[in-house]
Amino acid sequence: MKLSVRDLSFRYKERAIFSGICCEMAASSFTCLIGANGAGKSTLLKCLNGLLRPASGRVLADEADVQSLSLKQRAQIFGYVPQFTVVNPSLNVMETVISGRMPRMSGKASEADVTAAENVLKEMGLLAFALRPLQQLSGGERQRVLIARALAQEPRFMLLDEPTSNLDLRYQLDTMELMRELAKQRGIGVVAVIHDLNAVLRFADQAILLCDGVVLSSEAPEKVISKENLRAAFRIETDFTQARELRVMVPRHSLRENE
Amino acid sequence: MEPITHTQEVILTTLRLPRVVTALLVGGALGLCGTVMQSTTGNVMASPFTTGISSAAGLGAAIGILFHPFGVGEQSVILCAFSVALVNAGVVYGLTAAKRLNAGGMILVGVALNFLFGSANSLLQYAASEDQLAQIVHWSFGSLTGVTWPQIFILTLCLLIAFAVFMRLAWSFNLMASGGDESARALGVNAGAVRVGGGVLVTLVAAVTISFVGVIGFVGIVAPHVARMLIGSEHRCLLPASVLIGALLVLAADSIGRTILSPTVLPVGIVLSVIGAPLFLYLILSQRRGRVY
User: Fold this and answer.
1) What is the mean pLDDT of residues A182-211?
2) CB A103 to CB B174 under 8 A?
3) What pTM does this model have?
4) Which of A94, B94, B232, B242 has the fewest CB atoms in 10 Å of its CB?
């Protein structure tokens, strides 16, 4: 399955967030949305799965316009892990992951739904936590549970809004590796808003850089994350260095208004 | 053991038994509806009466007592209370759907209507005779006296239908109560439709209940909380628990109200608030930190 964004514009009342966005995201590929705060990354993510209705333009899942699909159909295509999720503290891990079966169940969770949830927990290494209430888990473990809930939807695309924010270095690394695995081993198209540009350089197949409401660049991360693009999008000067086989971006200083 | 006399049988089947069954049904229905309102609005202060339905039904009852639009007698009062409650529901949910209001907006519309209907009720009380005023005030206390078997049948039907529908929506309530509308929509749940549809059903059940027994307010807010403290927020368990606890609360309050100052019978609504409020405060304050509150 392929996700195509065609001439997409979005505005909150009079304020245009972005306009004329065109890009493509493929299955089995890990795409990162990058850009400064307020560039419209989260808004674009919510337009992809139809949570927000664009002012104009279309998002096509293969040939189907996402806005023309029912909520249930959209939830069968897109798993979504929002930036801030308040979870029901009384639900345990298993029940939370079963709730991810909502788009595929009719009122009651069937045996098949329970089995599907169990399988996801097993794959994610969460089976030992199955009966533990969410409020007893650490931030990183809870993030994995929410990703597991989205996986239980059996989505074609996973959309994640800053999934590594608020995580320590180990969980950031684990989460980035997990997203790459989902793309490579399960054939899911993964689209994530990520602020850590070095993690994007290391893990992503594609980066889409948003700047001033347009796509400044959309291709392989090492081409998108360049001195010139970062100067334009973030107003910072950067250096690049090599650490073993990895290309590493080092921020030097921010630019003044007249620079 | 001696066989019961005819008089005892009549008292049992026409006074005691209907009263007990009504207490269980009314408490169960209001407990269930309270849980659904709290879940669909994501607001732990919500109750079946949050949308102003109790004030609307009170106004309807006052209209029935003063102006007899459907004739004289108890049935007329019931019909008036039910009709104005439905008007209230129509306005709240009509505006919510038409203006695409979120849960907060819906509650505020209900608060505004609550004041509007309450003021209109006060105005009618101001104009009422002493006898009429006594009837209006007595109605507002809530009483389980005089409910008939046909009315009990209607209450049973309402509770069963509402319970079946809400149990089917238990997973949706789980998502809406915790993660909010966006999280629910991302999982294929039309949160707005569940809120309006569930709210309309809550209103119908609450309207029937209020019309038959008057306003018994406290149970609709306290039963869900007690149930949540005891078994948590998983709605497949929370919904039946709310029914059970609501039913037991009203039955206990009515039994106390009937016997504590016998032969004087205290209205069930008053007993529920007097005994329930301190108990509720105790339960909230004795919770371990970070559990539910």
Assistant:
1) 94
2) no
3) 0.82
4) B94
